[in-house]
Specification:
Length: 136
């Protein structure tokens, strides 16, 4: 999904001109021949991921496996992704001619944070010691 988002769901392959700032203009997502299925597919993929995470979490708990997820890196990934997409890409905050550079920088930092997060995830089995007492 991150590759699809980085390529603007394929819009970068369909430039239609240049704006007054010298940046390329691309077709809108809904104008692509597959544009009507992009966002439903993203929704379906997110739903599948959430269901699989729920199933794996449930199975892990049943088998006594603890998940250790680095919260700092994960939150840093979320924050830099939101900054890159919502703030700099949408132009909610203007920094002159630096918005595109700030957007790309936030995306690179987000990808690095995600790599660090996946590197630090660990799973440990909890051993449950059960003592049986016999009554005589």
């Amino acid at each position: 999904m991150m590759i699809g988002r980085e390529l603007s769901w394929g819009r970068v392959f369909y430039p239609i001109g240049m704006d007054k700032n010298g940046e390329q203009i691309f077709v809108k997502v809904h104008e692509l021949w597959y544009g009507s299925v992009v966002y439903p597919m993203v929704g379906i993929l997110i739903l599948i991921v959430l269901i699989l995470l729920g199933v794996y979490f449930y199975q892990s708990r049943r088998q006594g496996i603890c998940w250790y997820i680095p919260l700092g890196e994960f939150l840093f990934f979320i924050v830099t992704s939101i900054l890159g997409q919502c703030v700099f890409d949408r132009g909610l905050v203007q920094f002159g001619n630096y918005n595109q550079l700030l957007e790309e920088s936030c995306e690179i930092i987000a990808y690095i944070a995600l790599i660090c997060c996946t590197y630090d995830i660990s799973f440990k089995r909890r051993y449950i010691h059960i003592r049986y007492f016999s009554i005589r």
